[in-house]
Write a structure and sequence with these properties.
single chain; mainly alpha; 6 helices
């Protein structure tokens, strides 16, 4: 398996795993804080929604790219669009969760009760996993853009290319201008459609005319 495919699989698997963890914690917060702490309940609801959206988009794209060839879900343009959209959502979720602490560094060990300590650590987990998902998606998008630029510089059309073929397109030999010109010259070399056979003229033998008179 190519390095790009390995990094892509690792990025998808990590983001999906972190989203699943956030799905559980946020769902628990929504059930416990509804009507009690409005700000934290709203933040957990948003994190819950982003986690569900992440699974709804990333899991089918990953599954289709592994099991099926030729699907539009495997296009580079589609993958960049989905990852960019999720990157924005995770940035908003992480920033919203971080804003609730108002810049205060939380020390959960100083909590005066076990329940409050668990609440503090769950909040830190939501905050940390949200930023990690944002960072992983950002790094993956940069990686894809680098391969896209390399493939475009080699004269290849990449937007409707399958994401699995992007690493090959970006690292393979490019078709630069001299190569294209040489190829066109070779293909357009004049080939005569017929060969003109040399014409041979047969010399006319002149026979002496005259009747011998006896």
């Amino acid at each position: 398996m190519a390095l790009f495919d390995t990094l892509r699989l690792a990025s998808y698997a990590t983001v999906l795993a972190f989203s699943l963890i956030l799905l559980g914690i946020s769902g628990y917060w929504v059930s416990q804080l509804q009507g009690v702490a409005t700000s934290f309940a709203t933040s957990s609801s948003f994190s819950l929604a982003v986690s569900v959206i992440t699974w709804a988009f990333m899991f089918p794209v990953l599954l289709v790219s592994i099991l099926r060839r030729g699907s539009f879900l495997s296009w580079v343009a589609i993958e960049l669009g989905i990852c960019g959209f999720l990157w924005i959502l995770w940035l908003a979720s992480a920033a919203y969760t971080t804003s609730l602490s108002a810049g205060v560094t939380l020390n959960c060990d100083l909590a005066y009760s076990t329940e409050l300590e668990n609440f503090c650590r769950q909040y830190q987990a939501i905050q940390a996993f949200s930023w990690l998902n944002w960072l992983i998606l950002f790094a993956y998008i940069v990686l894809v853009v680098v391969f896209v630029v390399k493939a475009i510089n080699k004269g290849q059309s990449v937007w409707t290319m399958e994401i699995a073929d992007l690493s090959t397109a970006g690292s393979g030999p490019g078709a630069d201008a001299s190569t294209i010109a040489a190829s066109n010259y070779t293909s357009k070399t004049h080939q005569p459609s017929h060969y003109q056979q040399p014409q041979y003229t047969q010399s006319a033998h002149q026979h002496p005319q005259g009747v011998a008179q006896v």
